[in-house]
Each structure stands twice: as structure tokens, then as C-alpha cells.
Amino acid sequence: MDQIIQCVPNFSEGKDLEKIEKIVAPLKNREGVKLLSVEPDKDYNRTVVNIIGEPLKVLEAVYEAVGIATELIDLNIHRGEHSRMGATDVVPFIPVKNIEMEECIELAITLGKRIADDYKIPVFLYEEAATCKERVNLAAVRKGQFEGMAEKLKDPQWKPDFGQCIPHKTAGVVGVGARLPLVAFNINLGTTDINIAKNIAKAIRHSSGGFRYIKAGPAELKEKGIVQVTMNVVNYKKTPLYRVFETVKMEAKRYGVPVLGSEIIGSVPMEALAMSMEYYLGLDGFSMEKVLESNL
Amino acid sequence: MDQIIQCVPNFSEGKDLEKIEKIVAPLKNREGVKLLSVEPDKDYNRTVVNIIGEPLKVLEAVYEAVGIATELIDLNIHRGEHSRMGATDVVPFIPVKNIEMEECIELAITLGKRIADDYKIPVFLYEEAATCKERVNLAAVRKGQFEGMAEKLKDPQWKPDFGQCIPHKTAGVVGVGARLPLVAFNINLGTTDINIAKNIAKAIRHSSGGFRYIKAGPAELKEKGIVQVTMNVVNYKKTPLYRVFETVKMEAKRYGVPVLGSEIIGSVPMEALAMSMEYYLGLDGFSMEKVLESNL
Predict the structure, then answer these.
(1) Are B33 and B51 within 8 A, CB to CB?
(2) Using CB atoms and an 8 Å cut-off, which of residues 18-47 of chain B contact chain A?
(3) For residue A296, is pLDDT > 80?
(4) Does residue B119 contact residue B63 with C-beta atoms inside 8 Å?
(5) Residues within 8 A of A (CB atoms), B 201-260 only
(6) Record's PANTHER family (chains A, B) (predicted)?
(7) Start and end residues for every CATH 3.30.70.670 domain found in chain A
(8) Quick one: pLDDT band at residue B291, thresholds 50, 70, 90?
(9) B183-295: CATH number
(10) Domain B4-178: which CATH class?
(11) How does B163-195 read in b/e, with b if 16+ C-beta sit within 10 Å?
């Protein structure tokens, strides 16, 4: 059975569309690789690229794109609202089908080593690929940004996983990682009272005592006259969608507020939906192998 | 995006494993085609084969298998409990991914014509591929079986869609069709009273006034000490799983019997699960394109 991964490299260029075009060129019309989206953001001055495909073919394509980004982007003159440490800022590998996290970590190690060896850019492994717990959190790795990296890399605690202890002069350092797919999941409440969304978000998110893999906050949908609990489910296997949804319903009862429904922003892995179906239909002996398309 | 179909040819040989092996040989180790299962049944003297893959490659592989079945099976000496009209009895094409029913009907027409032209076997198109409403129901097409086909084909109403009005001497006639995937879905009731399963099956099935696309009956699971409503969902798009499940729960209340859960036998299309998720989570603006794997 074919293995499929997703990869979401972030490049520190969000304005010059010609440069962006050149960077993503190696990801296009390539056998075994499908470019899903290229999303430049002018304010962030950053482009998020989304591809899926066969593991080694994705790795090879991304390796080439990182090479081009290294040539075209000079962080000494880069300004943008999003923090960054490299011309290629981060490259996360994400297991999608018939592949374990372990194999995605291997891909991160392989790519990280090649980026350091061939492009002379120091590399940090992060999230699931991190070599120590201080490097799991990307924000901690990136702290100090491009401008602070020369100093940071002198600290033995921040010796890069690959490459020298000196940032690349124009391309900085790169974070290469492995993680599960994020699910952006929002739940709509039948009220205009943003405080209710705030309280429910607080009840379910990890940072204030809720579920381990939920990040949540309130949002106002003024046009619709409702509020929303807006979430990132960072591990849908351990905090499944149905559990969050039913908990939000349960909390909403305190306020006499109806849950109107929900929405998924972007994409969701088939397994995340199937796990919730297993709950609602009380499916016995269900496994992903039962899903017809899993056999491809 | 790749198109994927399923095909479930039924061959009238369920005992001689050597013959079966020869018939399915063209379906093995073939690029773009995956053989999911080969299930011979001795009592039926019939083998159900399950393959998925790229439309034209599946068609070509099945065409070859039908040729071998025509050489190896002589219906004049075939005995079995399952009714049959041909050495290759039926060949249904089933849309799975990025393909419409219309295209599966085209495949049925193409294969039907080739079987008639090259193997000299008359062909009836059935279900979605049927050319008139009398031929939609496979049981009506097959009525009279192999032994009665010579007589049946003389009736102008039963002129085959392709080929002559005389059955093949040893291979009879073949039904080639197009249909949606069946979902075999069973719901468990917390009681030993089979009459309750009977009554609920009656309430939900088409034949006695229930849902248009549900076939249902009762079953006893003696080892578990429970009963089951056992179903075939013949169109999961028009009668979705959640609707059947919630209706069975609603009916079970009449008897004070709990619904313990459910099970899916064999495979289920991703879309059938996703449609039920849409209901339970009240998902706004959901489409199959949001499922990560749909982009492959």
C-alpha cells in the first residue's frame, strides 16, 4: 500500500510573487507529489506551502525548494509581522496514510542533515522530531529570531542538531520537524455574548485546565450574529472531535445557549472523522481498513 | 486526480480452487488494479471477487478474467444453491472516487459490448446501466437461470443488450451493471427477543413501508445473547447511516430496549461515514474535498 505524507514548509517571503513562484517550482508537475496550496501573506511576509505525496518524493522536492529559497531570500532585509529564524523557516512532515510518526521523524532527520551538509544552514529538529524536550516547542526554538540566532547558537544548549554553530549569513537556521495534522475546528454558539465563548474556550483548552491537545479561544461572527469557540485540535487521535463537541454542548447548557453546529477550516484527516463516527454509531470492531478508500 | 472504481465480478465456480486461481490470475500483480478479496462458496458453487483500481485498467483485467471463466466453466454441469445465468454471472461497476455513476455506466456498456463481440456471450445491462426499467432488478434479469435462458431470449422483451438472442452453449449470458457500493450495516439491540428485531426491521425497510434504500431483517447472536437488525444500505447517499441508526433508536424506545451499538461488515465508502459526521457535528459547509486523503 502506498504511503502518503503531508509537508507544510513555510518560506520567509510573502510579497514578491515571482520569487515565490521560483521557490515552489520544484513542487509542481512532479510525479508522486501534489501541490495543494501556496498561501503568501503580505503582512507576515511569509508563504505557507501545502503538499502531499509519497514520502521520498516529497522530501526530494522540498529539498530542492529549500535550495532555491536559500538563494533568493536574504533575511537581513526581511521585515514581517510573523517571527522567523530562516529563509526556509520551518518544514514539518505529517503522516497521512500507511505511515507512522517514526518514519516522518526519519524523514525530518534525513532532510535536516542534507540541508546542513549541502546548503550550509544549521538545522533544529522540533516537535515529534525534537532531540530534547526544550526543542519540542517551535516557539522556543525560534525565540530570538534571525537577528538573535548568532548569539543563541553559541549557547551549548542550543547547538544545532545538524550543521555548525553559526547561522547561514542570509538564510539563518531551519526548523525541520514531524507532527500530526492539525484540525482547525470551530463550534458555533447561538448567542452574541462573547463572554460565553470565552468561558467555554477556557473550559476545554489545555492551557487553562481542559483537554491536553486543544488550543481554543473565542471569536465573534458579527454578520451571522453569533459567537464561536475557535480551536486547533493538535492531536485528533488523543482528543477526538466528538469529545470536544459533546463537551462544548455540555458547557453551553450552563448558559442556556444552543450549539448551532460546527465547521472545519482547511482539511481534516479521514481518520479524525471516522473516529467520531465510531463513537456516534457505537461501531463495534471498526478499523480504518474498513474504509474502502484505505485499500488504495 | 485519479479516478477509482470498485468491481465485484461473480463467477459460477466455488469448489475447484485451481480453476478459480486461473480465473483471477489476470486480476493479480497488475498496475493500477488491486485485488481485495476472492471468496469462493462451496454451497453456492460461486466465487465473489472484489477489486478496486483505475477504471480502464480494472475493465481490461476483468475482461480477461471473463475470457478465462468462459473457457473453464460449463454451466450444463454446474450445480449450486445460488441462482445463476452465466459462467461469469454478474459484473457490477461501482464508483468510488472522483468518478460519477454515468462513467461507470459507460464502463458497463464498453465491457458488455466486448464480451458479446469477442466471447460470443449475450449481455444484459442491469441496475443503473439498465436500458429499461424491467432490467434494473438483477433478479428479474436472472429469472429462469441458465437452463431457461434459451427460451427467455426468444421473447423480444428479453432481447439482450449486446449479442445474439441465443445463450452461449456453456457460458450462458452475463449481466453487466453499475451500482453504488452496498453498506452492510447491523445494529445491536440489548434483548434476546427476536420479535423486537423483526418489528424494527419491518419499520425501517423499504419493502414494508420504511426507507427507500434499506433492506433489513432480524438476526439472533446467540453467543452474545442479543439480537440484531441486519441491513443492506443500497444507497448511502439517499438513506444515510445516521438516519437509519437514529430511527432504530427511536423505534427501540417503544420496547424499552437499548441500542448497544452497530457494526459494518466488509467495507464502507469514506463518504458514507463523512455524511453521518456532518449530521452529528452539525458541520457547516462540509464537502469531501475537506478530507485530506481526497486530494490524492
Answers:
(1) yes
(2) 34, 36
(3) no
(4) no
(5) 241-242, 245, 259-260
(6) FORMIMINOTRANSFERASE-CYCLODEAMINASE
(7) 183-295
(8) confident
(9) 3.30.70.670
(10) alpha beta
(11) beeebbebbbbbbbbbbbbbbebbbbbebeeee
